[in-house]
Every structure is written in structure tokens, then in C-alpha cells.
Amino acid sequence: MKYQLFGHTGLRVSELCLGTMGFGTENGWGADYNGSKAVFDAYTEAGGNFLDTANIYTQGTSEKFLGDFIGSDRDHFVLATKYTLKDKNGDPNFAGNHRKNMMRSVNESLKRLKTDYIDVLWLHIWDFTTHPEEVLMGLNDLISRGLVHYIGISDTPAWRVAQANTIAELRGWQRFAALQVEYSLINRTAERDLLPMAKAFNLTLTPWAPLAGGALTGKYLVGDKGRLPDNSKRLNERSTIITQKVVEVAAQLECTPAQVALKWTMQRNQVVVPIVGATKAHQVHDALGAVNIQIPENLLQELNQVSAIELGFPGDFFNEPGVIDVTYAQTKEQILFRD
Predict the structure, then answer these.
(1) Which domain holds residue 331?
(2) What's the whole-number average pLDDT of the chain?
(3) What are phi and psi of 130, to 5 degrees?
(4) Which residue among 34, 135, 150, 260 is the one 20 to 30 A from 92 at the CA level?
(5) What span, in angstroms and rounded, lies between the C-alpha atoms of 51 and 275?
(6) Within this chain, do residues 111 and 54 fall inside the same structural domain, yes or no?
(7) How far apart are CA 280 and CA 262, in angstroms?
């Protein structure tokens, strides 16, 4: 296992992150305590140190399990949890980005995790009711108190993230260091604005569902119904064609489809640390194999082509021949572009 720098910070995190949304069975699926410990051990014994959970995962059980698992070596792990989503129904202040929910949620997470601090606190989803300055002031208060070390943001429009980090830089506050969004061969829509924004602001991208709910493992092609992805876009004609290509590439590389799908996210032109969710140890062992393969350029292009999306305006507009002509005066090939 190698390590990546966490955005613009000096924090070192594993090149694969362990997602623990399935630690606990309260949602009708997932792993019990012993099964979760087996997953945790498989990941950490391979050198993994980056753990992702949230206050809402399995009604708090995920955090409780992790609190037990890391207790004997707390400082070794980069522990990330989230706030925003509800802890109970019927009370509007038990959810949201605002300061009251932030402080309450973090205090409850610290108790469940049995720790004095959180390495990375993610804002889980933008609520469209709280101003960025309120969010940033609250997060900086948590950092100044030593309760949180770094901050990230998830499931938020690119323009809002850019605005927030610009405000933070102007105010001298801690900036978001990473972005967490859905991203996979089946869902590449984040390439329209979220990925370019993350690269421009030096944010590490941590994709959730990089295997599209298991669809990219190829198991649904052979009739394994299992726990079907809850998104129909992951099980349609287009996703089937993409998955078939992943299976084909895996056969050529003598590895598994899951490894190909994960490595594809990691071979972007920016720092990407995919979140691997698992409820069984063998799933972790399979995913870890992604760090040992490299997809050749020709096969990478085949995967890119079969999964290509329309960027829409202005992305596709910039690529029109006439626009390129008038923008670069027929000299684009002579210009050395910066990454």
C-alpha cells in the first residue's frame, strides 16, 4: 500500500480508503461485529490507514464498531466521519449544515468512536439553507479546539465548493482538502465540473460507489442477484456494455473486474483515492489487488470510449473545431498546456 497526500495538506492517507457503511446490520444488510472486524483486519493488515464512516451509517453502529477496532492504536489511523444527515426524524435541527447540528453531531460521533478527535470531518451533503461562512466558522472552531484536524466536503455543487474555499482562503480559515462524490465508469457525470474544480483547488477526490454498487464486478452479468444496486442507471443497457468491457479488460490483464474498475478511477490526471465498501473480507482482498496493476494506455482508452458521456455546455463547446480555431488561431498544437 502506498500513500497519497490529502489534498493541499501534508496528511498521508492510503491509496484506497475503507468505507464502513456496511458495518452493522440495522439497514437490513451489512456485516455483524465479527464480520466487520474481519473486513477491518483485511484492510489494515495490508497497510491501509484511511477509514470512512458517518454519523448516520447503520444508526451509529458503524462508528461504534470502528471505535472498538481502532482503540488500541488510535493515532495510527486517519479516521474520517461526517455530519449533516439526520440522527432522528421530526426535529429540523437534528439535520443540516448549520452550527447547532454540526456541534451536536460531532459530539455524538466522538462518543460513539471513543476518541478525543476526528482526523477528517466531512460535510455530508449541501443543505441549501446554511451560508458557507456559518459552516466554515463552525468547522474552524472545531479545528481550533483540537476536535477536528482536517475538513472535506461531499455531495455539493462545484460552484459552492469553490465559493467556500475562496472565502476560507480570504479569511485565513481552514479550507476543504478533499471532495467526496459518486464517480465510476458507469457514472462519470462528475467530470463535467466537479473533477476539474477539485483539481484546480488541489482537492483529493474520494469517489463513493466506484464499483457502482457492485455492478462493475460483473456479478450481475452472470445472474447473481444478491443485493441489487438501488439505482436503475447501474443496471441498464449502457451499464451492461460498460461492465462487459471491464470484464474483457480484466481477462487481458489477468486480474478481476473490480480491480480494473477501481484502478480506472485511480489513473485519472489528478489525485483520486477511491472508497472501497465491503461487508466480507474477500471483497477487501480483491479490491486491494487494484494497487498492483496498471491499465495500459490502449485499454484505458477503450474503457474511456465505452463509458464516455456528453460534457454539455461549455465542455463540449470548447472541443468544437470552430471554437478551437478562433480561440487558438490555428496554433493549439504548438502550445504546451499545463495539467
Answers:
(1) 310-339
(2) 95
(3) -110, 135
(4) 150
(5) 9
(6) yes
(7) 17
